[in-house]
Amino acid sequence: MKFSIEKSYINEFLKSALVVSNEAIVNIDENGWKLYATDPANVILVHLTLSKYTFETYELDNEDIKELYDDVTSSKYHVSDVALDLLKISKLISVSKPNDLIEFDIEDNTMNLTQMLGKMKYSIRLMDTDSVSSKFDPDSMPKLTPVFKTEMIGSEFIKACDAVGKVSSITKFTATDDMFCISSYDSTDSMYVKFSDLDITRLTESDKDSVNSVKSLYSMEYIDNIKKAISARKFIYIEIGDDYPMRLTFNIIGDSECTFLLAPRIEE
Q1: Which pTM does this prediction carry?
Q2: What is the pLDDT of residue 139?
């Protein structure tokens, strides 16, 4: 299998995955790359997709494609599951410029990584998929029904979380039909950032009369890690419910995107 992709795109893919784990399994098929990973405490989950159209070169082995379609009973339509040391790859490609092409040649248990127009080539032994602690079965992905969804520019989300993070290690997200708020408090201080000019969509019309607002608490430690993956110039989409997991999604490019699911902290 051979792939080439602009460094800025694969770097965003890696940066987002590294929020959760230094290693992960990438599912490769005829549509692109997919990655699911969770942290040891199962508090945060990341789901990443890289469409094949994001790549400059996307070549799969003919025999692998044949096996994919021959196995019609399989629910996991993957040409290959590749276990990668994400942190190592991220460090290796750091010397390249954002628009440089990074080439991956995967064969047997080895990945050859080439960059800087062929001047640098690394041979990396692939990890054993059974040794990856962050692996997550996509068939067990929870089916969420959040109440509200909004979108905001990444820089606004980052600034708001930075502000409330100075007060407490716990942050509260609150939403109504016309207001979205990020806040925190402790025994002496409180801080909130209120957004009243966002487009807020109610996702569950059936409870409109009984549910006027929702709120959920989240650990600032995980929010801080998610912020590392967010581009200040891109829009992010946030979905929340009442004491409910938060789903945060943003686009990488084209059909390629990143989704984080963050479990709430339940007040005692």
Answers
A1: 0.90
A2: 82
